[in-house]
């Protein structure tokens, strides 16, 4: 049986709808999983049933994490949040941490996982972390725009057998302080944490870049999805 993976829904506020980038689904299917997108919900019983239905959770990109979730007020006009999504994902992450279910996060996924573990975020990088590294690229999104240093001895280093990686990048928030129990697996050229894992968990990992845009042509991106699916299958 292929492992079943819940892929967190993307929210379109203007159209009052949920949607999904095919790259998330296609990359998981190619790696051997059966992905599905659950409805957005804050109902505890529904959240528990979603959790019980799946073998793993993919935390996708999208809305900003509400700064109130890490004890701050929004300081910039470009902060766009989905409180329902924050609530649903944090509840699922707490269940995953409590039951050892595999989790893989991408972009916002890394940020919400960090907040779930007690960490904080830069609310707006151009305002709080001005530098020369491009973190919010323009299309096409499958091209690398900066490099990351991969920390030796981490699961990411063991999987990719590389000390560095060229990555695509599309985000304006990032990790400020690491959450409890999290360790950095990769750091950008300007010093931002770009990948994390939780050693106490069987599989709790996340990257700031977007392998769902590059899995079709990039072996490193495929390996990220494959290691996650393999963990869900165990």
UniProtKB/TrEMBL annotation:
Q: Which domain of life is it from?
A: Bacteria
Q: Which SUPFAM superfamilies match?
A: Class I glutamine amidotransferase-like
Q: Which InterPro entries match?
A: Class_I_gatase-like, Peptidase_C26, PuuD-like
Write the signal peptide boundaries. none
* An individual GO BP term: polyamine catabolic process
**Which chain regions cross the lipid bilayer?**
none
**Entries under Gene3D superfamilies matching the protein:** 3.40.50.880
Tell me the GO molecular function terms. Answer: gamma-glutamyl-gamma-aminobutyrate hydrolase activity; transferase activity
Keywords, A to Z, come to:
Transferase
Any single Gene Ontology cellular-component annotation: cytosol
Q: Name one Pfam family in it.
A: Peptidase_C26
Output this protein's name.
Amidotransferase
This protein's species is Bifidobacterium italicum
């Amino acid at each position: 049986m292929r492992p079943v993976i819940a892929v967190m829904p993307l929210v379109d506020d203007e159209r009052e709808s949920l949607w999904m980038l095919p790259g998330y689904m296609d990359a998981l299917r190619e790696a051997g999983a059966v992905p599905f997108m659950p409805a957005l919900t804050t109902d505890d019983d529904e959240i528990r049933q979603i959790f019980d239905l799946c073998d793993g959770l993919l935390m996708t990109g999208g809305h900003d994490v509400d700064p109130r979730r890490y004890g701050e007020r929004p300081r910039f006009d470009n902060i766009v949040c989905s409180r329902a999504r924050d609530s649903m994902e944090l509840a699922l992450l707490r269940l995953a941490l409590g039951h050892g279910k595999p989790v893989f996060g991408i972009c916002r996924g890394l940020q919400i996982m960090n907040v779930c573990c007690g960490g904080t975020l830069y609310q707006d990088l151009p305002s709080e972390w001005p530098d020369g590294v491009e973190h919010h690229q323009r299309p096409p999104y499958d091209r690398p725009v900066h490099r990351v240093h991969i920390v030796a001895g981490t699961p990411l280093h063991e999987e990719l057998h590389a000390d560095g990686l060229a990555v695509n990048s599309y985000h304006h928030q990032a990790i400020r302080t690491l959450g409890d129990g999290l360790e950095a697996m990769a750091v950008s050229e300007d010093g931002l944490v770009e990948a994390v894992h939780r050693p106490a968990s069987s599989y709790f990992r996340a990257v700031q870049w977007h392998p769902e845009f590059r899995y079709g042509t990039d072996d490193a991106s495929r390996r990220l999805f494959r290691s996650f699916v393999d963990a869900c299958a165990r």
